[in-house]
Amino acid sequence: MEKSERNYKKAIEIDGLFYPAKVNLAMLYNQEGRNADAEELLREVVEAHPALHEVKYSLGLLLAEVKKYEEAAIYLAAAARGMPERARVHYNLDLLLAHLQRDRQAEMALLQALEIEPGNMNFLYALAEFYIKRNRMMEAKLIAEQMIAKHPENKLGRDLLNFINGRLPR
Fold first, then answer.
1. Is 143 exposed, middle or buried (0-12, 13-18, 19+ CB in 10 A)?
2. What confidence tens digit (pLDDT) does each residue in 45-61 have?
3. Which of 105, 47, 103, 117 is nearest to 81 (CA)?
4. Which of 37, 48, 70, 43 is nearest to 59 (CA)?
5. Is the pLDDT of residue 156 over 90?
6. Are 31 and 2 in contact (CB under 8 A)?
7. CB–CB of 91/113 below 8 Å?
8. Residue 94 to residue 112: CA distance in whole angstroms
9. If pLDDT is split at 50, 70 and 90, which confidence band does 17 have?
10. How many Cα atoms occupy the beta-carbon half-sphere of 110 within 13 Å?
């Protein structure tokens, strides 16, 4: 780690515009728990290269990790707009927006992730759970049924459907 840090710093010293070294050094700092240093580097890269949506995504995840949720939502939303085909970005944005109780935005982000990867079991489960937590059982039931149809080998969909059916009025 120390040697990697030295090498990244040397690369930055040689060429301060070589952003990959800054991003890699930020990732190393994050692994070491030096999140303030990582954040500083990622912010530098985002400011200098606003079209690098992957770096905005990394900064958003880092900010969420250090509980700067409102600011994290800004960067994750920008990353989602810049990388509309990346389902995982939309999914992570959903998780953060749901935590911030921005339900409509969270639902839209998760629906976008599912539009990109309609069979993704994690995304389907997240949407069903989203609906259950908001007592939208009929919508949750439809998602559980999709889980069963798309992944009949996985008992999670059946278990979820049984749970939902137990909550529905008879």
1. buried
2. 999 999 999 999 999 99
3. 105
4. 43
5. yes
6. no
7. yes
8. 10
9. confident
10. 23
Between CA 16 and CA 30 the distance in angstroms is 20
- What is the rounded distance in angstroms from the CA atom of residue 102 to the CA atom of residue 91? 14
Question: Is residue 95 scored above 90 in pLDDT?
Answer: yes
The tokens describing 44, both together, are: 């530098």
Sole residue written with tokens 């992570």: 92
Rg value, the chain, Cα: 20
**Residue 120 carries which side chain, given as an amino acid letter?**
N
| Residue 51: partners with Cβ closer than 8 Å, 6 or more residues away | 82
DSSP state of 134: T
CA dist list (Å): 111 to 23, 64, 117: 30, 21, 10
Q: How confident is the model at residue 90 (pLDDT cuts 50, 70, 90)?
A: very high
Q: In whole angstroms, what is the distance from residue 91 CA to residue 113 CA? A: 6
Residue labelled with tokens 């999914």: 91
